[in-house]
């Protein structure tokens, strides 16, 4: 007897993992960059902290709203496509069967077998078969606006709190350096954790996240220093 083993695939994490990584990454980079830019303009410690806290709150709300709107648009499109497909199945089931069979032929099945598979799948769940194989919509990756919004807002807040805490702990002469260094370390850790959660290689995502975070903070610090001298 052939014994089947359970496989643990990670594709069902795509929805919340993308939102979580995006939120935390944006929280660290945007808040740290804002604080570094304000600090480079020779502002006081209190001004830097106020900028960080304000950026954390505003960013979390922005992330939640942005994720909800964008993912809702995807969800609306999916629902519209499913409604159209449901109508086509009701009006012309023979054509839809042939269409599904042709998809399987293009994937490598013999025409007779492809038609048999299409007929059997449609007998069980016609809309589900067309959603998966014609439209590319599946339960694992379907759009979930509320989940994406809450995940992004929560992880943004956590990410943004890290440079704020670093600024609170650092003496004023080293505030900018402390925020830069700790934020860079947290970004590298985030890249590694995101890659680990997604089952990907750790090195490349870690370097990618850390590099772009350092670039953003350095650029903002330079602009802040120029503006501080100008005003």
UniProtKB/TrEMBL annotation:
InterPro entries, alphabetized: Ccc1_fam
Protein's cellular compartments: Endomembrane system
Membrane-related topology note: Multi-pass membrane protein
Keywords: Membrane, Transmembrane, Transmembrane helix
GO cellular component assignments: endomembrane system
UniProt cross-references to Pfam families, sorted A to Z: VIT1 (PF01988)
Domain of life: Bacteria
One annotated GO biological process: intracellular manganese ion homeostasis
Main subcellular location of this protein, as a coarse class: membrane
GO MF annotations in UniProt: manganese ion transmembrane transporter activity
Name assigned to this protein: Membrane protein
Protein source organism: Methylocella tundrae
Taxonomy of the source species: Bacteria, Pseudomonadati, Pseudomonadota, Alphaproteobacteria, Hyphomicrobiales
